[in-house]
């Protein structure tokens, strides 16, 4: 390193008289023996005894400074018997090179160093280049040497920042983070080897603590780097290799855990001698060799991967092992770790260069056949696009044919009615498409409204249903619903035995038909539905609900749900059979009835599906006050959020007049019953029940009277009562 100083200073080589060679040592200042310095003087005197070194030499008159070399522990320096410093114990510095001003007495100079060992295994003038000369030149050379010492840790620190930034920017190489951590800890440890740390005026205990903590964490972080670098790259198919990998992994975990625990222990323990004893007796002779063995096994397993990096790591490990052996006094060699760490840096650099060269080679190969690849990919893209277009056209054709099948089975956006009731329908499916300039929609929501005559009276039959599934699957379920119900309506018009059924019985027959068909699909196709009959003459609503959103009744400007207690499972649900219950509700002039699928409640608001049943009641109330079309209600609904599902709505407005005849008949029947005129009261009860079928109490009275008389009406009315919801 000495030859670098004149290059940096652009001056002549340093003129100084070296003090390396034979010195005299003594423990009492009387009996003197010769010893070669710099060296570790451990063993020359008993532990904790004072040790004195002296050297007498002839010097030039311009000698004004003394560079002591690396001196450990608390030491006092004398020149011709004059004390040059005032040490303390424990020392305020350690392993330090001192630059002291001296004043020679003529040409004879006697130098003396008195040691009071602090550590029992290492003390004395350990290493360095002790010399005397001009103090200004000595200080300049000392400063340059310390700057050179700082060069390597700063290089490692910059590399640490580089790998940390590379991981944060790209996140592709997971080994970059442990490598950055290892390089940062290594740079901190190497900074502790510079004497410039004493210019920070930090307490010696804290400096020593930083050094030992970083020393404990060096190899665990390096092992972590090895773990990510060589992860899953070794062929472990052989049983022997698997056994070796398990043993070395166990050793690495145990040793690393011990070192990390030691680092935490050092943070809270203030006895430096304990740290030093643990390092010299356990860490360096036991734990580190085991970890070096683990790393050597990893390197051998992955020898063919990144050879420059592996060679650099091997050189660094070898230099570190030599320094450990030198510290344990097994061998006597110059420090090798700093030079070997340069090989590690070179290995990293060459590894990056090799990776860059490989990347450039791959890029050049890609560029060489880029045109061919682009042409090939373009042809593939065009072919795939043509296939997609063909498949899309076929799919849209299937959609269009299905929508044509579904169209006559449902009433999409229609209105109708008579003098006593008006109705309107609205359907909007989520799936819309175009096929050969024909735009249409497809989904599983369906509305059906049809008139049917039962027992000589006209009813409005309606169905609002939602088949399971999206687009084509839901449309298939809607086709099934429309076909089955359409067949039931057609048979009712043709067959007298069906048109003679009561509303409750007809609704049960329709439920059984729908349930049997959907149940045959074994749960792969289900539907929720509400099916009802409206007696426009008597103003009465009959319906059942199969797990469908409830009907909404608007009466006197207030909207509320009709909640039947006998809610059924979905059509086709593979669950135990349920007993059908028909809900019966009387209607008054001005009442409005709404039926709708779950699309009315489930809206997409800010990217989330929110279901709110109260929102629809609010919108219905506002809509009835405005007297607008049903499509306006949907527009109002979409102001709250986008539709997230298919939507089918039905609206019925009952405009019949309130009649006084049912009340007259009821009073007549009550009078006849009080007089026990059973036979005369039965026709009156029958007429009253026909005009007011929702009066379940009168129906029960009629059953008892008909049974007393043995009339067939008893059984018919009893069947009606059994089918009704008891809460109606």
TrEMBL record:
The chain crosses the membrane at residues 147-169, 176-192, 212-230, 250-268, 280-300, 307-324. Residues 353-380 form a coiled coil. Residues 458-652 form the PPM-type phosphatase domain. The keyword Transcription regulation does not apply. GO terms for molecular function: phosphatase activity. Pfam families: SpoIIE. Keywords: Coiled coil, Hydrolase, Membrane, Transmembrane, Transmembrane helix. InterPro entries: Bact_Sigma-Reg (IPR052016), PPM-type-like_dom_sf (IPR036457), PPM-type_phosphatase-like_dom (IPR001932). PANTHER family: STAGE II SPORULATION PROTEIN E, STAGE II SPORULATION PROTEIN E-RELATED. This is Stage II sporulation protein E.
């Amino acid at each position: 390193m000495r030859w670098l100083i004149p290059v940096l200073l652009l001056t002549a080589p340093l003129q100084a008289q070296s003090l390396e060679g034979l010195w005299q040592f003594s423990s009492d200042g009387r009996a003197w023996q010769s010893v070669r310095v710099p060296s570790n003087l451990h063993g020359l005197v008993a532990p904790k005894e004072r040790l004195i070194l002296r050297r007498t030499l002839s010097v030039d008159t311009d000698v004004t400074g003394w560079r002591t070399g690396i001196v450990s522990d608390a030491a006092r320096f004398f020149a011709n018997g004059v004390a040059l410093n005032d040490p303390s114990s424990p020392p305020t510095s350690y392993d330090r090179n001192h630059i002291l001003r001296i004043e020679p007495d003529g040409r004879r100079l006697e130098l003396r160093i008195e040691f009071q060992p602090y550590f029992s295994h290492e003390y004395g003038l350990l290493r360095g280049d002790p010399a005397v000369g001009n103090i200004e030149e000595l200080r300049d050379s000392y400063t340059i040497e310390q700057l050179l010492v700082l060069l390597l840790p700063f290089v490692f620190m910059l590399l640490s920042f580089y790998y940390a930034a590379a991981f944060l920017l790209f996140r592709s190489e997971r080994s970059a983070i442990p490598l950055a951590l290892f390089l940062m800890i290594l740079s901190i440890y190497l900074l502790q080897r510079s004497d410039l740390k004493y210019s920070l005026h930090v307490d010696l205990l804290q400096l020593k603590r930083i050094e030992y903590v970083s020393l404990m964490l060096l190899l665990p972080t390096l092992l972590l780097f090895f773990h990510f670098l060589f992860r899953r790259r070794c062929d472990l198919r052989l049983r022997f290799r698997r056994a070796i990998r398990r043993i070395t992994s166990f050793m690495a975990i145990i040793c690393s855990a011990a070192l990390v625990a030691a680092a935490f222990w050092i943070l809270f323990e203030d006895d430096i001698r304990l740290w030093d004893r643990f390092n010299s007796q356990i860490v360096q002779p036991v734990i580190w060799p085991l970890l070096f063995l683990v790393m050597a096994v990893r390197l051998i397993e992955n020898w063919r991967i990144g050879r420059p990096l592996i060679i650099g790591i091997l050189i660094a490990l070898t230099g570190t092992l030599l320094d450990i052996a030198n510290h344990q006094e097994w061998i006597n060699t110059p420090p090798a770790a700093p030079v070997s760490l340069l090989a590690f840096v070179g290995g990293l650099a060459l590894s990056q260069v090799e990776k860059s060269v490989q990347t450039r080679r791959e890029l050049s190969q890609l560029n060489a056949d880029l045109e061919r690849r682009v042409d090939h990919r373009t042809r593939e893209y065009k072919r795939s696009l043509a296939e997609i277009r063909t498949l899309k056209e076929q799919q849209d054709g299937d959609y269009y044919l299905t929508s044509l099948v579904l169209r006559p089975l449902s009433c999409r956006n229609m209105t109708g009615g008579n003098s006593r009731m008006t109705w309107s329908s609205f359907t909007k499916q989520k799936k819309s498409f175009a096929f050969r300039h024909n735009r249409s929609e497809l989904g599983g929501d369906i509305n059906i409204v049809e008139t049917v005559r039962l027992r000589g009276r006209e009813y409005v039959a309606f169905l609002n249903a939602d088949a399971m599934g999206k687009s084509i699957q839901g449309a298939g379920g809607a086709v099934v619903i429309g076909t089955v119900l359409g067949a039931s309506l057609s048979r009712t018009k043709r067959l007298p035995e069906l048109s003679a059924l009561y509303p409750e019985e007809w609704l049960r027959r329709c439920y059984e038909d729908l349930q049997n068909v959907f149940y045959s699909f074994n749960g792969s196709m289900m539907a929720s539905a509400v099916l009802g009959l409206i007696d426009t003459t008597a103003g009465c609503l009959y319906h059942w609900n199969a797990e469908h959103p409830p009907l909404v009744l608007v009466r006197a400007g207030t909207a509320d749900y009709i909640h039947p207690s006998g809610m059924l499972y979905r059509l086709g649900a593979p669950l135990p059979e349920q007993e059908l219950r028909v809900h019966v509700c009387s209607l008054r002039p001005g009442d409005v009835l709404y039926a709708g699928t779950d699309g009315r409640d489930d809206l997409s608001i800010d990217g989330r599906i929110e279901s709110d049943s109260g929102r629809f009641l609010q919108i219905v109330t506002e809509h009835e006050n405005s007297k607008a079309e049903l499509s306006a209600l949907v527009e109002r609904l979409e102001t709250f959020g986008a539709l997230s599902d298919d939507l089918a709505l039905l609206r019925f407005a009952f405009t019949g007049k309130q009649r006084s005849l049912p009340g007259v008949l009821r009073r007549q029947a009550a009078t006849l019953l009080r007089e026990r005129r059973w036979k005369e009261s039965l026709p009156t009860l029958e007429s009253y029940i026909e005009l007011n079928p929702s009066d379940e109490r009168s129906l029960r009275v009629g059953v008892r009277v008909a049974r007393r008389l043995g009339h067939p009406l008893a059984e018919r009315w009893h069947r009606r009562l059994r089918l009704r919801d008891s809460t109606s």
